[in-house]
Amino acid sequence: MKKLFTLCVAIVCSSLMIHAEVLKFNATSLAYKSQNNYGYWSDWSDWSDCNILVVWNVDAERIDIYSASAQEYDIYDYSGETYDDNGGTTQTFKCIDAEGMRCEVRFRHQSDGQWQLYVDYADVMWVYN
Hints:
- By secondary structure, this protein is mainly beta.
- Helices cover 14% and strands 53% of the residues.
- It has one helix and eight strands; from the N terminus they run αββββββββ.
- It has one helix at 2-19, and strands spanning 22-34, 48-57, 62-66, 71-83, 89-97, 102-109, 115-120, 124-128.
- An eight-stranded antiparallel barrel has the order 1-2-3-4-5-6-7-8.
- It starts with a helix and ends with a strand.
């Protein structure tokens, strides 16, 4: 009986590990833009080099970006996938950050294979390559 119980526990644990999905990315560059007091957006900044780990825990519905100050985004809604004229696709998630502010996080897969991660607030946006 003890062996049967141990076998059942091992099967349950291994099946849980199979379903866990965590995706890790390394961002190599960063750009941003912001909105001024009159509601106009700036142009995107020049790309600056970075080395930042991005962890998307699909099962926990969470995205963590390990920049100079850690960014935590809890996903509360999936807005769907869109396609652009250049052959790229974008998946958009509505999120809440660690301070309770709403934002959108977008994963964009360009037609050339490049991935980008956008973080969009009402008055500032940044993008990682």
